[in-house]
Design a protein that fits this description.
Chain lengths: 104, 107
């Protein structure tokens, strides 16, 4: 579609390499696509998948607009779990929508 | 507050049960029904709605249910919510099938 809809996001807020923090007290309740154990944690943006309809609106019969950028975010496992027994090099990659992220 | 399905890092959750089983006829039908309802031609149910309906199952009940029992509960929840079927219609049909000798379990 050539014409950009006003509901389309213009530019991604974050770029690969940016440090981000997953929101700890999100305004959204009910169906969310961000696992609870990541809330409040710091990671870094690995890539941008594109912009998609917001599943947290689609889940309740909404149209999912405006679209939200979806990022691939990398976390160090040792920063996620208090007594992590694996390698300090272990990483976790998770898809997270932009409205869940703030500068870290 | 995370919901019942969001269990990454739950203390003492134990190992994941990875055993497989042959699917029962009703499990295959549940899968088929759900997929027909969310095809692009119909879009009666969205996959996100289905996830939301599964996560909304009362936690004690959620734990007791198998994978496709959760799908079936979600399917009924959404069809009722969208006004396509009523609880009474579903129960009446289940009773009718039960009377014909089918093994329909009332919940």
């Amino acid at each position: 579609m050539a014409r950009r809809r006003s509901s389309e996001p213009v530019a991604a807020k974050f770029k690969p390499g940016d440090r981000v923090r997953v929101m700890a007290n999100p305004a959204v309740r009910g169906h969310v696509r961000t696992p609870g154990y990541l809330q409040g944690k710091i990671g870094s943006v690995e890539g941008i998948h594109g912009a998609f309809r917001n599943p947290e609106s689609l889940a309740y019969g909404g149209d999912g607009l405006p679209k939200q950028f979806l990022y691939l975010v990398r976390f160090d496992q040792v920063r996620l779990w208090e007594k992590y027994g694996g390698s300090s090099q272990d990483r976790l990659l998770v898809d997270i929508y932009e409205h869940w992220l703030e500068p870290g | 507050m995370t919901r019942v399905h969001d269990r990454g890092g739950w203390p003492g959750a134990g190992p994941i049960d990875r055993s497989e089983h042959e699917l029962a006829w009703w499990e295959k039908r549940t899968d088929a029904l759900m997929r027909l309802l969310w095809t692009p031609e119909r879009r009666i149910i969205k996959v996100d709605e289905m996830r939301r309906a599964i996560e909304s199952i009362e936690p004690a009940k959620y734990e007791k249910c198998t994978y496709y029992e959760r799908w079936l509960i979600a399917l009924e929840t959404l069809l009722i919510e969208k006004g396509i079927l009523t609880r009474a219609e579903i129960d009446r049909k289940a009773e009718e099938l039960g009377a014909r000798g089918g093994k329909v379990q009332a919940r």
